[in-house]
Amino acid sequence: MPAAGKAVRVKLSHVGIYVRDMERSLRWYQEVLGLKLSDYLPAGNTQEPAAPHGICWLRYDDLHHELVLVQLPPGALQAGETGRPGSLQQVAFRLGSEAEVEAACARLQAAGGEILRPPRRQRMSGGLQFYFADPDGNKIELFSSANRLPY
User: Are 88 and 107 in contact (CB under 8 A)?
Assistant: First the structure.
């Protein structure tokens, strides 16, 4: 039960996902989505105890990171496993226009990407969105800027 008083105001900072093959996933997020590498600690690092098998931080703009890739240890559960508590449902990235959404979908299809849901209008905001799978089966959404709430 929340404590009495005013709620803490938060903004989403970043999302971390587990991957089976760090190099493949890193290359994919850089080449397909244009993310830039901020930092990388390889397997065997002692600086990040939560990720001894490797971790990298990726950015889209001027923040240090918006996406974190964490290497699964050998023999771990499959990356992209969904539908269980603690698993990731999706990661969404906002693009600047509907034309960018359509171009991104076309580029992913041309590269052999798995489109989970083709571009369509978002029911609530009216923006354009589509879903696809990354190399580990994580569900990714790209969408055009949604309408801002009036409050």
Answer: no
